[in-house]
Amino acid sequence: MQVRNKAHYLPWLAVLLTLGCAHARRTVTPLAVMPPAVTPIANTPEQPAIAESVSVTDEVRSDYEAAVLMLEKAQYEPGIALLIKVTEQAPSLMAAHADLGIAYARTGDLDRAEASLKKALELSPHHASVHNELGVVLRRKGQIAKARASYEEALAEFPDYPYAHRNLAILCDLYLADYKCAQEHYDSYRRLAPNDTDVTKWLADLRKRGTQQKNP
């Protein structure tokens, strides 16, 4: 089952980093990370805000911004190198570890992606978006039970997080054949993201397969 990755980076001092993976038929997980020492943005129905207040030098801030611009241009190697420098100079900066984990994931280095995302969660364990992104990495590594737990942790932190509902529904549907779980979270996602018309097709497909399973 092939996965196609796509990254989008929004301007600094707004939502710093938005990233997503796309399955052949189902889009998976954006993550929003904000820069240090800025006012948190309000939560939205789409995703929880991530913000932190960490004192950093002008050099670190400049390097951080430059790294994001590199990632925006898919210049992953220099972007990752600069983010590593940032995490070494400001090891308590959660957003840099999260961004580094996402960048590693985009290059297919899933072990380092997992380690960086876990470090981000050590620094700030209650961010639903990071749990959600970690779930994607774990799913890609074939660690399905751990991926499910990570999505569920995201929802425990932010119950109306539509992307975590969608990811958990896809996991239950395509990887676990747990159709009850899949329908529950597809329904939640449809309630939270009513403009995504694809979910209606997914639910119809799910019900069809469930009926075929009951009546072989």
Number of strands: 3
Q: How is the biggest beta sheet arranged?
A: 3 strands, antiparallel
User: Could you give the order of the helices and strands?
Assistant: EEEHHHHHHHHH
Instruction: Tell me the radius of gyration.
Output: 18 Å
Uncertain spans, ≥5 residues at pLDDT below 50?
1-45
Q: If you had to describe this structure to a student in words, what would you say it looks like?
A:
- The protein is built from nine helices and three strands; from the N terminus they run E-E-E-H-H-H-H-H-H-H-H-H.
- By secondary structure, it is mostly helical.
- The protein starts with a strand and ends with a helix.
- The relative contact order is 0.11.
Present the secondary structure layout.
Blueprint: E1 3-8, E2 17-23, E3 27-33, H1 58-72, H2 76-89, H3 94-106, H4 110-123, H5 128-140, H6 144-157, H7 162-175, H8 179-192, H9 198-214
Question: Which descriptors would you attach to this protein?
Answer:
216 residues, three-stranded antiparallel beta sheet
Give the structure's gist in a few sentences.
The chain is built from 9 helices and 3 strands; from the N terminus they run E-E-E-H-H-H-H-H-H-H-H-H. It has helices spanning 58-72, 76-89, 94-106, 110-123, 128-140, 144-157, 162-175, 179-192, 198-214; strands at 3-8, 17-23, 27-33.
